[in-house]
Amino acid sequence: MNAALFNEIQCICKEKGWTKTDLAQESGIHISEISRIFNHKRSLTLKYLDAISEAIGLEEDALYSYFYEECFNEDQILDKRKSVQFLFKCFTNGYEEHCQNLLHLMTTEKSVSIQIEYLNYIFFVAEELFKVGKEEKALLLYEIIIKCDSKDVLELLAISYYRRFYILRMTEDGQTALTYVLEYLYCMPKKVRMEAYLWISAFYYRREQWEEVLYYSERLRKLVKNGEYYGRALMYKSFALARLGGSLEEIIELTEQYAGVSDYFADLAIGNRLASYLDYGQLEYVDQYLSWLEDREDVYVGLPKVLEAFIRLNRLDDAKRILDLYKHTIEELIIDAEPWLKQKVHLDFRYAYAFYQCESLQLPNGLDELLDVAYTANQIGNLERFNKCLLIYWRYKDHATSDQINKYIQLLSINGIKESSKRNFA
């Protein structure tokens, strides 16, 4: 134990009139361990420091400013186990000052070889934070790896770019983050590249950029030959082909292929096969599709498609029945639209609902919703949905208010949705 920390603990124990035995009893640390630590025959771990701090009545991090020195070994190099554990604890519990101080020690190291070692420590902590769902905190560490931009840790750099994209994919920075991922795909280990292809496909699926969905789902399919990722690849490929002019036979064939992956995919294939019939204009399957959906927890996924089919069949009473029957489900979707799939389904539903309002002559409310959906679609880069909204608006333009006409003109003035994707063929 370093002198400053030793003196601080000793001083507090003296104030309390405690012996080493008292400290051992109060902290739950065996007396032999306390003696070895105080006699400098055993290093002080973070676990023991926390136990001592609690025993003497201090806040958990009260003595952390003394612990940095404990993280160094005899060669004055940060010990991996201690520094990683300390950094993870500080990030987890929000001890920002200690996080920054330890990171400063790591990133200002002059020796290149030692700094590379420290970057590995930082990356390890980032991955641990990512695994336990503390993505925003992990992002701060991934950004350090990215900022260093060292070719000596190329794999870590590539993974950090991917993790940053994954964390930011639902934000306005998602597309920019993706650009860097595409440049470093070839540097990623296979498992991470599989994840990257899957979430890139999902990213473009949300934006309904079907050529990109097709491209990256096919890359994923070639990378894996079975299991969940293979099933997802085939499913995304079928979705993309359906929008890019593929035949119904092609879509059904792909559906049959992923149906054989597992029971889970076999169940999805039943519904997706019916959904494909609806996509290809065979609207008579809508009731069968609704019957498949009704008892599912993810019923919300198919509601927009059912609603739109009823509208196109001029079954507006049935559309209203669906809206009334699933009102609670729809309200929950509106409130909890953060996860990427729910966000996309929420937009699909808003589009279908605006379509219903227009068809049932609930104007100008329907046009207001339609223009709002068009604006949101543009914000997330969904050009297909943007254009669909404007086409329906055009059909009902004679019912538009002056404010709606101005909104429509503003939307028309948008210079399209920027396409900044860049494929990496490595």
Automatic annotation (TrEMBL):
SUPFAM superfamilies: lambda repressor-like DNA-binding domains, TPR-like. InterPro entries: Cro/C1-type_HTH, Lambda_DNA-bd_dom_sf, TPR-like_helical_dom_sf. This is HTH cro/C1-type domain-containing protein. It holds the Pfam family HTH_3. Gene3D superfamilies: lambda repressor-like DNA-binding domains, Tetratricopeptide repeat domain. SMART domains: HTH_XRE (SM00530). It comes from the Bacteria. Residues 14-63 form the HTH cro/C1-type domain. Transmembrane segments: none annotated. The lineage of its organism: Bacteria, Bacillati, Bacillota, Bacilli, Bacillales.
